[in-house]
Design a protein that fits this description.
Layout (H helix, E strand, L loop, with lengths): L1 E3 L17 H11 L14 H7 L2 H15 L3 H9 L1 H15 L1 H9 L3 E6 L2 E6 L8 E4 L8 E6 L3 E4 L1 H4 L5 E3 L12 E3 L3 E2 L4 E4 L2 E7 L5 H9 L8 H30 L4 H15 L3 H19 L2 E3 L4 H6 L3 E5 L10 E7 L5 H10 L8 H11 L10 E5 L7 E9 L2 E8 L1 H6 L5 H16 L3 E11 L13 E9 L6 H10 L3 E5 L4 H11 L8 E3 H11 L7 E3 L3 H13 L4 E5 L5 H6 L2 E5 L5 H6 L2 E3 L4 H41 L8 H17 L24 H27 L4 H24 L4 H19 L1 H6 L7 H24 L30
Parallel strand pairs: 13-20, 13-23, 20-22, 21-22, 23-24, 24-25
Antiparallel strand pairs: 1-8, 2-3, 2-4, 4-11, 5-9, 5-11, 6-7, 6-10, 12-25, 14-19, 15-16, 16-17, 17-18, 18-19
Helix pairs in contact: 2-5, 3-4, 3-10, 5-11, 9-10, 9-23, 10-23, 11-23, 13-14, 19-20, 23-25, 23-26, 24-26, 24-27, 25-26, 25-29, 26-27, 26-29
Length: 850
C-alpha cells in the first residue's frame, strides 16, 4: 500500500523533530478542521422537560384543573394539579435510565494524544491534533491520525483493524521524502489512525486528520446507510394509530350524545375530556421508550454499552452473527500451544533457549508468550548477563542473544522462522526434511511456528558478531491465539437456539479452520470460503452459499456478505474493531464494536459497544433483547386488558343514559396505578444459559390472532362484570358515588390480577407492585375521609363479593389462555443454512497452505 503525501500540508522537512507553536496550531485547525470523523451533538439540558410537555396526560391535568377552578371546585382543582408531580417524576426517571449507557461510553472510551508544541510535550484530546503536529506514540498506544514515521527503532504495529491480519506489521521511519508535490510513500513508513503501536516509541508527523484519514474516508462512505424503523416501532405505531382513531370517534359521539341528552355543554366537554384521557394510548410509546431505556441500563451492567436505544430491540431479533475472530472469539494474544523438542532435548531446555532470544521490553506478542511460558516452566531461566542482542528484522527473520553462562563461556540462542534457523544448523538431509514436515503440519493447524537453536561460545575467542553457523537444533515452538473462555459454550448456545454464526477474519484459511474446530463452529466439518471465493459465489448465484468461516476477507467482502444476508431476510449483527469494519457495522441491523481493542471509528459507527470484547457478552445481549420483546408484549397485553373495560364502560354507560361513570380524579387515580404497573412489573431479566429461539423479521403487528381473541374475550368479560356490579349497586338503592366505588374496585383489582397472571409474580418488583396496587385501592375506597374527598363511598362486604366474582371469571380465562399458549418459534428466513453439514473445507475454494 502506497499513500500520496501532499507536501503543502507539511510545515517543513518531515524528519525535522520540531513541533508547532500555538499560532500555527490555530491556523492549521482553521484550515484543515478538527481531528473528528463524526461530531456528536449534545442533548439540550431541557430535553426532559420538552418530553414531558408532549405527554397528553399532563395537558389533561392542567386543563381539567383550570376547568374545576373556573367552576369553583377548588378541592378537585388542587387534586388535579398535585397529580402532575408523580407524572413528571416518572418522566425524569425514564430519561435517567435511557441515558445511562451513553454517559458510561463517554467516560470510558475517550482518546488522547501526546504532541510537541511550543518546544514541550503536551497531552491533548485526540480531536485537538492538527495537520503538521509532531506526535509521540508509545508502545500500546493508538496512532491519533495518519502520519509519516520520522523517528523510532524496533517499531511494530497492529493493523488488524485495517487489514484483519492478526500478526504484527514491521514499521520503519522515513529517511527521505521522495521528490514531487505528492510523492507516494510505502505503508511501512506510515502510522495510521485507529491502529496500535506494539513495540518501540515512534515520532510521527501528522499528514491527515479527521475525515481525510483512511478510516475517515471509510466512515464517509458508510454514512449513506439508512436506518429503517424496526418492526417493533412499526407495530407500536400501527397499534397507536388504530387506538387514537377509535378514541377520537368515541369522544366525539359521547360529547354529542351528552349534550343532546340535556346535560349541558360543560358536562359534555368534561365527559369527552375524561374519556379521551382514558382512551388515548400514550402509555404505548412511553412504555416502548421506557423498556428500551431499561434494556440499555441492563446491558450496560453486562458490559454492553448501547449508543442507540432501539438497538436493544434490534439485537433481540438477530438471526445471524458475523463475528470477528481475533479478540472476540479468541483472546487476541499469543500463547505457547505445543513444544516439539529435538531428541535428547527437554522441553525446559527448549523454552529456556526461546526465552533467552526474547526481550520483555520490546513488547512483541511472540516474545511475551515465550517469556510467560518459560517463567511458568518447572526450571525457569536463571542465566547470566546478556552480552549482546541481534534483533529480529524482516531480512534476517530471526533474533539472537548472547548470554554469559559461566567462567569463559557464552551461550548463543536463536529463534525465528524455521527455514532460517535450520540453515544455521548442521542436519542430515533426511532429518531436515522430517522437521520441515512437522513445521507444515503445525502450520496447517493454524499455529505460528518458530524454531530454536543454541551453541556455546568461547568468551575469549568471540569477537562480538552474530554467529552464522554451528548451532545445535533444539526443536519447534508452536503458538496460537487461544479461544476465549466461554466462547465455545456461547457458540453452542447460538446453534441450539437456531442462531446462525459466521466467523469473518483476515487470517489464512487453515488458521481460521483450526479456530472454528476448537469453537465447534459449524459442527465437525466447518465450511470455509475465502473472501474472493465468497464474492464469486455471490456474483454467480446471487445467494449466500453455505459457509461458517470466511477467511482472507477484506472490508468490501465483509460488507457484501452483510448486504447479501439482509437481502435474504436475515437480521444481521456484525462485530468489528477496526476502521475496515465501519461499512459492515453501518450496513448491519446491529453494529457491535469492541470497547477494549476497538478503534474510535468503529465505536462511533456501531450501535452497541462491548467493553470486554467477549462473544459471550454479545450472546447475553441477544438474550436480553429477546426477553425485552416478551416483557414488552406482556406489558402491552396488560395495558389493553385494563383499558378495554375502562374505555368501553366510560363511553357506553353515559351513552345509555347512566350518570357519568368516572370523574377526572378517578381517571388520574387509575392512571397512577396503571403507569407504574406497566413500566415496572414487566421487567424480567433474561435467564443465563437460555437463549430464546429465533424470532426473525416479524410483521408490523404486535399480537397474533389468537392473542387478540383472548384479549377481546377477557377484556369483554371484565367489562361485563364491572357493568353488572355497577348496575346491581345502583339497583340496591345506593347513590352514584357508591356505584362508582364499585367500578373503581373492579378495575383496580383487575389491574393487579392481570399483572399477577402475566408476570407470574417471578420478580420481586412485580410482587411489590401488585401488593401496593391492592393496598392503595383498599385505602382509597374504604377510608371514609379519603373516599369522600374523591367522590366515593366505602363498599360493603357483598359489594366486594360481587367485584371478586366478576374479576375471578376474567382472570381464570386469562390464566388458562397463558398456560395453554404454545411456545412459538419464528420460521427461519429463506436462504438460512443449518450448521454442521456441508463439504470438506478443502473443496470450498480455500488456497493451499503456504
Amino acid at each position: 500500500m502506497r499513500i500520496p503525501v501532499p507536501t503543502r500540508r507539511l510545515p517543513g522537512a518531515p524528519d525535522a523533530l520540531t513541533g508547532l507553536d500555538t499560532d500555527e496550531v490555530l491556523a492549521r485547525r482553521e484550515r484543515y478542521g478538527r481531528n473528528d470523523v463524526r461530531g456528536t451533538a449534545r442533548r439540550p439540558a431541557l430535553h426532559t422537560l420538552r418530553e414531558a410537555l408532549g405527554d397528553p396526560m399532563l395537558w389533561f391535568l392542567l386543563g381539567t384543573s383550570t376547568l374545576y377552578f373556573a367552576l369553583g371546585e377548588r378541592t378537585e382543582g388542587w387534586g388535579m394539579l398535585l397529580a402532575v408531580i408523580p407524572l413528571l417524576g416518572m418522566d425524569a426517571f425514564l430519561h435517567h435510565r435511557t441515558q445511562a449507557s451513553t454517559q458510561g461510553l463517554r467516560s470510558r472510551l475517550a482518546a488522547r494524544a501526546t504532541v510537541l508544541r511550543d518546544g514541550r510535550e503536551v497531552d491533548v484530546p485526540a480531536e485537538d491534533v492538527v495537520v503538521g503536529d509532531l506526535a509521540r506514540v508509545a508502545a500500546g498506544e493508538h496512532f491519533p491520525a495518519d502520519g509519516l514515521l520520522v523517528h523510532g527503532e524496533d517499531l511494530q504495529a497492529e493493523e488488524s483493524s485495517l487489514t484483519g491480519e492478526s500478526l504484527p506489521v514491521r514499521k520503519r521511519p522515513l529517511e527521505r521524502l521522495p521528490p514531487g508535490e505528492e510523492p507516494a510513500v510505502d505503508g511501512r513508513h506510515w502510522g495510521l489512525s485507529g491502529t496500535r503501536l506494539l513495540t518501540g516509541t515512534a515520532w510521527m508527523r501528522v499528514v491527515f486528520t479527521g475525515q481525510d484519514t483512511l478510516y475517515g474516508g471509510i466512515v464517509r462512505s458508510a454514512r449513506g446507510e439508512a436506518r429503517a424503523r424496526t418492526p417493533l416501532q412499526q407495530a407500536v405505531a400501527h397499534l397507536v394509530a388504530v387506538l387514537v382513531g377509535v378514541a377520537a370517534l368515541l369522544c366525539a359521539v359521547l360529547a354529542f350524545v351528552r349534550w343532546r341528552q340535556g346535560f349541558g355543554g360543560m358536562d359534555a366537554l368534561l365527559s369527552a375530556a375524561t374519556l379521551g384521557v382514558a382512551a388515548l394510548p400514550e402509555e404505548f410509546p412511553m412504555a416502548l421508550t421506557f423498556f428500551l431505556g431499561a434494556g440499555v441500563y441492563r446491558l450496560a451492567r453486562r458490559q454492553a454499552l448501547v449508543r442507540h436505544a432501539v438497538s436493544v430491540e434490534n439485537i433481540g431479533r438477530v438471526t445471524c452473527i458475523c463475528s470477528d475472530k481475533t479478540g472476540t472469539l479468541t483472546e487476541g494474544r499469543l500463547q505457547v500451544a505445543r513444544l516439539l523438542p529435538a531428541p535428547e532435548v527437554s522441553t525446559g531446555e527448549l523454552l529456556r533457549a526461546a526465552a533467552r532470544a526474547s526481550r520483555e521490553e520490546g513488547g512483541d506478542p511472540l516474545d511475551a508468550a515465550l517469556l510467560e511460558a518459560a517463567a511458568s516452566a518447572p526450571s525457569p531461566e536463571t542465566g547470566g548477563a546478556r552480552e549482546a542482542t541481534f534483533p529480529f528484522t524482516e531480512e534476517r527473520q530471526r533474533e539472537t542473544s548472547v548470554v554469559r553462562e559461566g567462567a569463559g563461556l557464552l551461550m548463543a540462542s536463536v529463534k525465528g522462522a524455521p527455514e532460517r534457523v535450520l540453515d544455521l544448523c548442521a542436519l542430515a538431509a533426511g532429518e531436515r526434511e522430517e522437521w520441515e514436515r512437522r513445521v507444515t503440519a503445525l502450520a496447517s493447524e493454524g499455529r505460528k511456528v518458530i524454531a530454536c537453536a543454541s551453541q556455546r561460545l568461547d568468551a575469549a575467542a568471540w569477537r562480538g558478531g552474530e554467529p552464522e553457523r554451528g548451532f545445535h537444533f533444539l526443536g519447534l515452538v508452536a503458538c496460537e491465539d487461544p479461544v476465549r473462555a466461554g466462547a465455545e459454550a456461547a457458540v453452542r448456545e447460538c446453534r441450539d437456539a437456531g442462531l446462525r454464526t459466521v466467523m469473518v477474519t483476515g487470517d489464512h484459511p487453515r488458521t481460521a479452520l483450526a479456530v472454528a474446530r476448537r469453537l465447534g463452529l459449524g459442527g465437525t466439518a466447518p465450511r470455509v470460503l475465502t473472501g474472493d471465493a465468497l464474492v464469486a459465489r455471490l456474483d454467480d448465484a446471487g445467494r449466500v452459499p453455505p459457509v461458517d468461516v470466511v477467511a482472507r476477507a477484506v472490508p468490501a467482502q465483509k460488507y457484501a456478505l452483510v448486504k447479501a444476508l439482509r437481502r435474504e431476510g436475515e437480521v444481521v449483527a456484525v462485530t468489528g474493531d477496526g476502521v475496515n469494519d465501519v461499512p459492515a457495522l453501518q450496513a448491519a441491523d446491529v453494529g457491535i464494536a469492541m470497547g477494549g481493542r476497538g478503534t474510535r471509528s468503529a465505536r462511533e459507527a456501531a450501535s452497541i459497544v462491548l467493553l470486554d470484547d467477549d462473544f459471550g457478552t454479545l450472546v447475553r445481549a441477544i438474550a436480553e433483547g429477546r426477553q425485552l420483546f416478551q416483557n414488552l408484549q406482556h406489558c402491552f397485553l396488560y395495558l389493553l386488558l385494563v383499558h378495554l373495560p375502562l374505555v368501553s364502560t366510560a363511553a357506553l354507560l353515559p351513552l345509555a343514559g347512566y350518570p357519568l361513570l368516572y370523574l377526572p380524579i378517578h381517571i388520574v387515580w387509575l392512571e397512577l396505578l396503571i403507569h407504574p404497573t406497566a413500566m415496572l412489573a414487566f421487567q424480567e431479566s433474561a435467564r443465563p444459559g437460555r437463549l430464546a429461539p429465533v424470532r426473525g423479521r416479524v410483521p408490523a403487528r404486535f399480537f397474533a390472532r389468537s392473542e387478540w381473541a383472548t384479549l377481546l374475550l377477557v377484556g369483554g368479560l371484565t367489562a361485563v362484570g364491572l357493568v353488572w356490579a355497577y348496575d346491581r349497586s345502583l339497583s340496591a338503592g345506593h347513590d352514584v358515588a357508591h356505584a362508582r366505588a364499585v367500578a373503581l374496585a373492579s378495575l383496580s383489582l383487575s389491574s393487579a390480577g392481570f399483572a399477577a397472571v402475566l408476570t407470574r409474580l417471578r420478580t420481586r418488583t412485580s410482587r411489590w407492585v401488585c401488593a401496593l396496587t391492592l393496598a392503595g385501592s383498599v385505602l382509597l375506597l374504604q377510608w371514609p375521609p379519603l373516599a369522600t374527598r374523591v367522590g366515593l363511598h366505602p363498599l360493603h362486604v357483598h359489594d366486594w363479593a360481587r367485584v371478586l366474582a366478576g374479576v375471578a371469571v376474567a382472570l381464570t380465562l386469562l390464566a388458562l389462555a397463558r398456560v395453554d399458549r404454545p411456545a412459538t418459534r419464528a420460521p427461519r428466513p429463506s436462504g438460512a443454512v443449518t450448521q454442521g453439514a456441508g463439504p470438506h473445507p478443502a473443496a470450498t475454494g480455500a488456497p493451499p497452505p503456504r
